[in-house]
Specification:
single chain, 147 residues, alpha+beta, 3 helices
């Protein structure tokens, strides 16, 4: 039986996680340009795959009564992306302060900046109460945070 290849979770370049994303017809609006809300989806994939690549599983987080909620997201759209574009979602987690995680993200097409985001997530229990990330999680993130 042939093994089915797994989707990429991206790669790291220094502190920066890089996730390739292809633009499909479903990502665009009637003008043929990526619908603005879809950039939030790409940024989410970047944040999630960052965790996956450093060994933090969302399934394990769920089992440990832990999740994350985005409480702030500042977006700047610089250029339009279109069908068939190959984009790169670039994610860095900058710091952890109490229950909050600060993240910087960019989407590029080659050397062109398409969109950028500055976000803040808060660690919560599954019933929505704020909690600090575990010491183990912070230790797993430590090599990737700003010094």
């Amino acid at each position: 039986m042939t093994e089915i290849p797994q989707p990429t979770a991206g790669v790291f370049d220094g502190r920066e996680h890089q996730l390739p994303v292809r633009i499909y017809y479903e990502d665009t609006d009637f003008s043929g340009i990526v619908y603005h809300a879809n950039y939030l989806r790409y940024f989410e994939r970047g944040r999630s795959d960052f965790f996956r690549m450093i060994g933090i599983s969302h399934t394990a987080l769920h089992a440990a009564d832990t999740a994350f909620a985005i409480i702030r997201m500042e977006l700047d759209f610089k250029r339009a992306a279109r069908i068939d574009d190959a984009l790169l979602v670039r994610t860095t987690y900058d710091r952890v302060k109490g229950p909050r995680l600060f993240v910087s993200q960019r989407i590029t097409r080659g050397d062109e900046l398409i969109a950028q985001a500055a976000g803040e997530a808060v660690c919560i229990t599954l019933d929505g109460r704020v909690r600090k990330p575990t010491a183990e999680m912070v230790a797993m993130m430590a090599p990737w945070l700003e010094v």
